[in-house]
Design a protein that fits this description.
- The complex is a heterodimer of chains A (127) and B (146).
- Chain A is mainly α and 127 residues long.
- Chain A has four helices and no strands.
- By secondary structure, chain B is mainly α.
- Chain B has one domain: 3 helical TM bundles of succinate and fumarate reductases, CATH 1.20.1300.10.
- Helices cover 67% and strands 0% of the residues of chain B.
- Chain B contains four helices and no strands.
- In chain B, helix 1 crosses helix 3 and helix 3 runs antiparallel to helix 4.
- The chains are: A mainly alpha (127), B mainly alpha (146).
- At the A-B interface, helix 1, helix 2, helix 3 and helix 4 of A face helix 1, helix 2, helix 3 and helix 4 of B.
Chain lengths: 127, 146
């Protein structure tokens, strides 16, 4: 009787989930990039047009969305470094699992440094 | 019971294999540069000073008054759009099964990429921080028509 395939380097483990997360965050960042080029292009239309659209970036809902964007960028960038190390560093594949957790730890630390500050900017409070 | 093995499919042509290799290399090289460029962009725009609250036309005008941030943003624009489009192409190749769907999605992706690179480059190179007939209070502090 065929048994369920055991976990491999990728299937069902850190290798697979980092790959899934890298794809999801990549798609999210891509669609934001499309919007962001268009909204920035409004500086060429008029100061009023740019200011009115950029004002939506300061609203609570979009402000929270920016937290998601920054979290996505942090993970995608740092996991990208992990991918580069797996490809080019001879010991990269051996340490891919540890490197994933380093990626998560550094992303969480950087996010913790950014999030309270950004929330204060969005919801008022300190300068 | 005999096992039939499918006839091996024709390999990629030399030329397209080479192109894929350069694409693979580009993702890593541009990714490393984008890490620096985007982290710098986020620090300058969302972290220092008043962050998102300070961003308006005057803020952009102040940044793009000197070539430094124009070049920074221009390189970021090109690298990020090509990186993102090539990444989306990888997903399309993985998940779009019908050849014509795959082909049209890939063509659409590169068309959008080309239009946005052109638009963004034009905006950065032709930007005027002190456009005539604007409300003075919306302009950067160094404008003489303020």
């Amino acid at each position: 009787m065929p048994s369920k395939p055991a976990g491999t380097l990728y299937r069902g483990k850190v290798g697979m989930w980092s790959w899934v997360l890298h794809r999801i965050t990549g798609v999210a960042i891509f669609f934001f990039l499309l919007v962001h080029v268009l909204d920035t292009a409004l500086v060429r239309v008029s100061p009023e047009a740019y200011n009115s659209v950029i004002a939506t970036y300061k609203t609570p809902i979009i402000g929270l969305g920016e937290l998601g964007l920054v979290a996505s960028i942090l993970f995608h960038a740092l996991n990208g470094v992990r991918v580069i190390l797996i490809d080019f560093w001879p010991k990269g594949a051996k340490f891919q699992n540890v490197m994933f957790w380093v990626v998560i730890a550094v992303a969480v630390i950087l996010f913790a440094g950014f999030a309270p500050r950004h929330l204060m900017h969005v919801f008022g409070g300190a300068k | 019971m005999s096992i039939t093995i499918e006839t091996p499919r024709s390999p990629r042509s030399r030329k397209s294999a080479k192109l894929e290799k350069y694409g693979w290399l580009y993702m890593r090289a541009s990714g490393a540069l984008l890490l620096v460029l985007i982290f710098g962009h986020l620090i300058a725009n969302l972290f220092v000073g008043e962050g998102i609250r300070a961003i308006d036309f005057g803020f952009v005008g102040g940044k793009w008054a000197t070539p430094f941030w124009r070049i920074w943003d221009g390189i970021m624009l090109w690298l990020a759009l090509i990186h993102g489009t090539n990444g989306m192409r990888t997903l399309v190749n993985d998940y779009a099964e019908r050849p014509w769907v795959r082909k049209s999605l890939v063509v659409t992706l590169w068309a959008v990429c080309g239009v946005l690179i052109l638009l963004g480059t034009l905006v950065i190179t032709t930007f005027d921080p002190c456009p005539a007939n604007s409300l003075p209070e919306l302009l950067p502090s160094f404008c003489t028509n303020k």
